[in-house]
């Protein structure tokens, strides 16, 4: 989901779906160096509220530095999608994007949330980074009438138990002047249903939902959700649902036939369901053949008619065992611990989708087939179709034709499912925990004749489990805090859970309650941020998550506190104290007004974006809403209903409703307080003590209770009102600046005009009199919204040997401080809140960048420009902010030896780049040598007019944007002396040295795991090499090292495309285009060979990291495996890398790579963020080859590429044994004789965070099947 500015308090969509900005469904891990804060915009998505200190802005683009899509922790025990390891821009698609990885791991694994929130959030990166309605709500819906089925069976059993409802009726504190009866009548009205959502049900029980959606055009999503998951497995079947997902999906021949059509497919398994999904064009490329029937036929085969061949079962068994070891990170183990204790009373705490290794190894085909026969039938599935659909009756006919006869021969029609809470369907299912209503047949039959007599029905409740609710007056005793200690943990983290039934959002009153909670918790988010004032803050992050979970069948409120181990007691105390303060005194009138206004603005913005939400986001939204029983509305309905209830909200009610959410913390220990469902602390076994080294870390349950009680006893005072500035630059100040600096546009270098406008792309180029180049594009695809990015050349590459780490620490210091001019950080943040501005700050190897997302409502664009002006002119550098930044990077360094992946990647980077610290994390020695003035100079010395570039994309007018450019960028002090810019020390690849080409890392761990990285030099995006060569000077002379063109390609070129090939080879983006296609091809071969044929890994990927300003690049192959297979896996990867000469690239491989990249490009063209990436470096003097044709001709350049061109690019990758570096990491109890530990002098690199996520289940959904 795209983050709103209230990203700190997170709801998942319920009022309306939100455009994620990424149609590829990739959910990348949160890099611990890319941290940003979007100051508090509580987007109203009622089934989820999260108070935290970060947000994320998805990255999609060809040139700009990638900002990984950091998925929000949704307590997903669905195992998260595989994430890229080596950061910078990944020109090559990760395998999970280009192929079909098991989506059982579809959720990402965010590292510990360590950001110290501020108005400008640091997203600094290093070069290595691990980079989801009941039909009863449809009574008044304007839906095309089809057969409407009974209540959706997978809606969670979330009704409030008898006797509880009365306790919720005392929340209304209405002012006497309001007509209470009229208000109650209004609040009791049902919310409107989505007017375009079409629902139906076949005679065999299959439910289907169809939703027309035009984004992306000429494509559609088809998802088959089978309502069976790990929760339905017997004790001897743990992991079998996931196994069936693999075998059924990858064994489908009809799915394979879709691969040449431009379709992408995948699958995943979770607690409560298994989903198979296909993203497809509506028609084939060269004809008008309708692809709907073929896609539906493939899903029918996958779900209901799989072939359980022994060969496929064995192949997937190997893959899953490899996946299990790959997943078994410390983050996954923490997730398991959290869920085990939160759901200790039911199966959710012990039925993780990946399963148990010893069981996976021994199931035979018959065992797997029986589970499939028990659960895979039409009445236990729902089909979702969302996309560019014009003829719904035709789609319904297609569904009936493909699925209508399935299941009718061997099963009877399902009877209505019971609706009472806890009631279960009466049919053959696995045994469930005691206490649930209903009966189950214990008879097992293996004969087909007997199975025909069984009436198979779906569970009435999904997931079919019973919860112990955290409600006042319950007789359950408080469970003592649980402590999970592990040597791979670096920080202290504690989670306090409260678990209640889901309150379905179906009426205006339900929505009103959600709105009030949202306002209340938004205030908590901001208040927590204001406590970061000392140089040694007691906690690194405090989060309050209040969210519904369809997969868990409950609403969970979680207080998560993370801290340095030495500060844990004070951290818990302060967090509890802040919660108490808000609960006791409530939000202020100013806070109510502020957050209500921001919510309404945000909602209005979403409504304006109704035609720009992607099909996959709409589908996920509908699926999750159905699972929770919420009414599905579109964005316009969501905004209108929100406006309708907003006027009925009072301050007293907000504080009363919000206080109920916090009582399990604020009233902890009182007889009337809800008991926490669990308290779980995850802590390291040892900690670093300055001057001592490693020391044992000890903690007891009693100490945890005492620290909570200390927060309950600490004195508290009411929160004072803050004065929020309406503007950062007054009109009089602006007029004075204008008179002083006389801003104007000057001729663009190489041109005699002051304004270059390209009609085809809509791109305008300008140059200000202070030297700052500006690019902008007017785009109405995201209504009344815009995005702006400042790029400053230099980055970490400009760090000298005397200032190692200065740039990255300096950027973090600026982020930590958050002050500009005479305004405090709090005032700047609230200014952003009021104007719906997202602001982020990052440093990379090549540049420093600031990015702003804003709305054009209420002068939002003007406010964003004011903030940028103040950063450039009046940034405030604070000593305590510097201390915090330095302490964070010190902590990052010390956490590297506790992460197998990070330690392995670190050692590889040090070897390959000759120990260059600019591409890894600063060492303690380097950090100690820094001071505030050093880091300030390292950052601000690059802010020279000609070294900066500003790009803006949005729904503004030419007059509006150029006025802002002149007023706020043109009045920035002129600075043209680029000769004074810091120079960069040379970057070199280490020469071949015995002992460094191949290395190993051993890590002591309780469980076995292995990973490996293979890397080598490559040119940069524009054809420059680290040796100083310009490949374009010799491109016509480069030999193609294979046996010549294929016959089909010769015919193609003879047919008249030779001129196109010449144009491509002369184009500055030749190597960027061909390297991207090459990466797709190599990824496909790695999957086919190393994963599918040899069974040596589950997860393997090839990525190219191509720089723009630096004259180098590199490729990286990352592979996970087992200790026993990892060496063979590395050898196999090397063989694939070097095998393109002996095993020539086939035309179909190139065609598939072209379709993949072109589809991605076309799908993203409606995104402002994507256009912003296209504009990057357009006027940068340090990237002279970037020109407008690199944007205008992108599609034709891809289409013109030939196999010969791909080999020209391939020959520039150094894959010989002398140039290739590899490092294998092995973890386990017997992994080497000693653990590899970094010395204080060694420099680690940025990789995937090896620290603990702050929520539960982030790593548990099974990985993408393909």
TrEMBL record:
Residues 220-344 form the Peptidase M16 N-terminal domain. Keywords: Hydrolase, Metalloprotease, Protease, Zinc. It comes from the Eukaryota. Residues 363-599, 929-1157 form the Peptidase M16 C-terminal domain. Residues 1240-1266 are annotated as: Disordered. Transmembrane segments: none annotated. It holds the Pfam family Peptidase_M16_C. Belongs to the peptidase M16 family. PANTHER family: NARDILYSIN, STROMAL PROCESSING PEPTIDASE, CHLOROPLASTIC. This is Stromal processing peptidase, chloroplastic-like. The gene is LOC104771356.
């Amino acid at each position: 989901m795209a983050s709103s500015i209230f990203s700190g308090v997170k709801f998942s969509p319920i009022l309306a779906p939100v455009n994620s900005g990424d149609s590829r469904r990739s959910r990348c891990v949160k890099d611990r160096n890319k941290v940003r804060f979007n100051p508090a915009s509580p987007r109203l998505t009622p089934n989820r509220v999260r108070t935290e200190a970060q947000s994320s802005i998805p990255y999609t683009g060809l040139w700009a530095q990638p900002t990984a899509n950091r998925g929000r922790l949704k307590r997903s025990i669905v195992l998260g999608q595989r994430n890229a390891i080596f950061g910078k821009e990944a020109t090559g698609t990760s395998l999970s994007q280009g192929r079909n990885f098991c989506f059982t791991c579809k959720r990402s694994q965010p590292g510990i949330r360590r950001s110290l929130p501020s108005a400008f959030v640091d997203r600094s990166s290093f070069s290595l980074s691990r980079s989801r309605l009941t039909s009863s709500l449809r009574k008044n819906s304007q839906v095309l009438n089809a057969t409407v089925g009974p209540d959706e069976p997978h809606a969670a059993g979330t009704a409030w138990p008898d006797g509880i409802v009365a306790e919720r009726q005392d929340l209304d504190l209405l002012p006497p002047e309001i007509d209470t009866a009229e208000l109650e009548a209004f609040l009791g009205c049902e919310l409107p249903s989505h007017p375009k959502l079409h629902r139906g049900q076949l005679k065999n029980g299959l439910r289907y939902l169809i939703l027309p959606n035009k984004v992306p055009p000429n494509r559609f999503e088809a998802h088959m959700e089978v309502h069976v998951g790990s929760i339905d497995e017997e004790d001897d079947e743990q992991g079998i649902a996931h196994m069936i997902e693999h075998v059924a999906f990858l064994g489908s021949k009809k799915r394979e036939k879709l691969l040449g059509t431009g379709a992408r497919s995948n699958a995943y398994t979770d607690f409560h369901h298994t989903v198979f999904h296909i993203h497809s064009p509506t028609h084939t490329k060269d004809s008008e053949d309708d692809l709907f029937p073929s896609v539906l036929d493939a899903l029918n085969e996958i779900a209901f008619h799989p072939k359980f061949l022994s060969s496929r079962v064995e192949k997937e068994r190997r893959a899953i065992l490899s996946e299990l070891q790959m997943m078994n990170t410390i983050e996954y183990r923490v997730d398991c611990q959290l869920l085990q204790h939160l759901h200790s009373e039911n199966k959710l705490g012990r039925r993780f989708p990946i399963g148990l290794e010893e069981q996976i190894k021994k199931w035979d085909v018959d065992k797997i087939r029986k589970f499939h026969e028990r659960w895979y039938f039409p009445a236990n599935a729902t089909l979702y179709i969302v996309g560019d659909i014009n003829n719904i009756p035709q789609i319904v006919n297609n569904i009936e034709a493909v699925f209508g006869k399935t299941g009718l021969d061997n099963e009877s029609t399902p009877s209505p499912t019971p609706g009472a809470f806890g009631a279960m369907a009466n049919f053959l299912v696995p045994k469930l925990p005691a206490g649930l209503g209903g009966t189950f047949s214990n008879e097992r039959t293996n004969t087909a004749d007997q199975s025909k007599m069984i009436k198979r029905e779906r569970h009435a409740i999904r997931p079919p489990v019973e919860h112990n609710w955290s409600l006042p007056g319950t007789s359950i005793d408080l469970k003592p805090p649980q402590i999970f200690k592990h040597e791979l943990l670096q920080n202290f983290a504690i989670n306090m859970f409260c678990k209640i039934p889901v309150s379905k959002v179906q009426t205006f009153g339900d929505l009103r309650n959600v709105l009030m909670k949202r306002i209340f918790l938004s205030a908590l988010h901001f208040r927590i941020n204001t406590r970061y004032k000392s140089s040694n803050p007691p906690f690194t992050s405090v989060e309050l998550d209040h969210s519904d979970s369809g997969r868990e069948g409950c609403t969970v409120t979680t207080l998560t506190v993370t801290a340095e181990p030495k500060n844990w007691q004070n951290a818990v105390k302060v967090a509890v104290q802040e919660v108490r303060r808000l609960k006791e005194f409530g939000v202020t009138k100013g806070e109510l007004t502020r957050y209500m206004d921001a919510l309404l603005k945000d909602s209005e913005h979403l409504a304006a974006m109704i035609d720009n939400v992607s099909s996959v986001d709409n589908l996920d939204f509908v699926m999750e809403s159905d699972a929770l029983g919420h009414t599905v509305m579109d964005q316009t309905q969501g905004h209108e209903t929100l406006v309708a209830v907003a006027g009925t909200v009072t301050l007293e009610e907000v504080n009363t409703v919000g206080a109920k959410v916090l009582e399990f913390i604020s009233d902890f220990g009182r007889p009337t307080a809800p008991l926490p469902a669990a308290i779980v602390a995850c802590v390291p076994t040892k900690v670093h003590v300055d001057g001592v080294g490693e020391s044992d870390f000890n903690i007891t349950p009693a100490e945890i209770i005492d620290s909570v009680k200390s927060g309950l006893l600490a004195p508290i005072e009411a929160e004072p009102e803050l004065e929020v500035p309406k503007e950062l630059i007054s009109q009089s100040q602006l007029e004075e600046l204008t008179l002083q600096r006389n801003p104007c546009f000057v001729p663009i270098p190489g041109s005699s005009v002051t304004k270059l406008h390209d009609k085809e792309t809509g791109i305008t180029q300008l140059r200000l009199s202070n030297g700052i180049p500006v690019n902008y594009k007017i785009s109405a695809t995201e209504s009344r919204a815009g995005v702006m990015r400042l790029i400053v050349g230099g980055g970490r590459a400009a760090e000298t040997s005397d200032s190692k780490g200065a740039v990255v620490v300096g950027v973090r210091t600026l982020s930590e401080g958050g002050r500009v001019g005479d305004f405090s950080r709090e005032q700047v943040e609230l200014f952003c809140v009021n104007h719906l501005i997202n602001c982020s700050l990052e440093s990379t190897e090549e540049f420093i960048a600031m990015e702003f997302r804003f709305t054009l409502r209420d002068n939002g664009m003007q406010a964003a420009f004011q903030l940028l002006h103040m950063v450039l002119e009046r940034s405030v550098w604070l000593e305590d902010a510097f201390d915090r930044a330095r302490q964070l990077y010190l902590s990052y360094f010390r956490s590297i030896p506790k992460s197998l992946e990070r330690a392995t990647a670190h050692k590889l980077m040090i070897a390959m780049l000759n120990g260059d610290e600019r591409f890894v994390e600063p060492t303690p020695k380097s950090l100690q040598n820094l001071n505030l003035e050093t880091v300030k100079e390292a950052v601000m010395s690059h802010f020279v007019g000609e070294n900066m570039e500003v790009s803006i994309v949005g729904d503004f007018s030419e007059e509006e944007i150029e006025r802002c450019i002149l007023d706020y960028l043109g009045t920035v002090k002129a600075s043209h002396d680029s000769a004074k810019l810091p120079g960069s020390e040379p970057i070199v690849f280490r020469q071949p040295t015995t002992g460094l080409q191949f290395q190993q890392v051993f890590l002591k761990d309780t469980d076995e795991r292995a990973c490996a990285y293979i890397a080598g030099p490559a040119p940069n995006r524009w054809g420059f090499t680290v040796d100083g060569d310009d490949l374009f000077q010799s491109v016509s002379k480069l030999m193609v090292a294979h046996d010549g063109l294929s016959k089909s390609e010769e015919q193609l070129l003879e047919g008249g495309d030779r001129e196109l090939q010449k144009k491509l080879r002369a184009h500055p983006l030749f190597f960027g285009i061909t390297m991207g296609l090459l990466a797709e091809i190599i990824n496909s071969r790695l999957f086919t060979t190393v994963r599918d044929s040899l069974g040596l890994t589950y997860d393997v990927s090839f990525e190219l990291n191509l720089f723009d300003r630096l004259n180098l690049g590199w490729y990286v192959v990352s592979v996970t495996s087992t200790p026993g297979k990892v060496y063979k896996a590395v050898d196999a990867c090397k063989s694939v890398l070097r095998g393109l000469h002996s095993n020539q690239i086939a035309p179909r491989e190139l065609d598939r790579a072209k379709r993949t990249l072109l589809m991605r490009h076309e799908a993203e063209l409606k995104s402002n963020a994507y256009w912003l990436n296209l504009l990057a470096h357009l006027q940068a003097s340090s990237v002279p080859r970037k020109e407008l044709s690199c944007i205008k001709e992108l599609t034709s350049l891809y289409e013109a590429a030939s196999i010969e061109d791909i080999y020209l690019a391939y020959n520039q990758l150094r894959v010989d044994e002398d140039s290739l570096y590899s490092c294998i990491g092995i973890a386990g109890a017997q992994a080497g004789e000693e653990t590899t530990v970094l010395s204080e002098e060694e420099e680690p690199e940025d990789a995937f965070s090896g620290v603990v996520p702050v929520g539960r289940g982030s790593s548990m959904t099974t990985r993408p099947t393909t």
